[in-house]
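Hi V.,

You were right to ask for the full record rather than a summary. Here it is.
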Amino acid sequence: RVPRVAHIEWIDPLMIGGNWVPELAAIANGENLFGEAGRHSPYLEWDALVEADPDVIVVFPCGWNVARARDEMGHLTRRPEWHGLKAVREGRVHLTDGNRFFNRPGPRLVESLEILAELYHPELFDFGHEGKDWVRFEN
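Predicted structure:
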């Protein structure tokens, strides 16, 4: 099954991964719910996120590492809508190192793709990124 994924590039206000992220999502066999390949990362209203109810949420705030992303997650978790999202209920919210892997193109695109493959299809892929380049977010 192809998971339906929201890639959050900024958490307050919500911005969704654009540019090359939708292409990486497609290659990793995920259905990118928001953002378009080759277009800048758009803002997203909370209602749209709730309505889409993604299977997986990948959080990679621009310029932040995993620890900083974790420190700032209250901007999302304090929202009453957050806890009703399928990805949250099923433990499929992941924090990644946006600064190193997703916020700018470069030589780490292959590693970025590996990370997405691990997050979308953990039963199939383990490239060893868990714990250092991404973590599962526990509410």
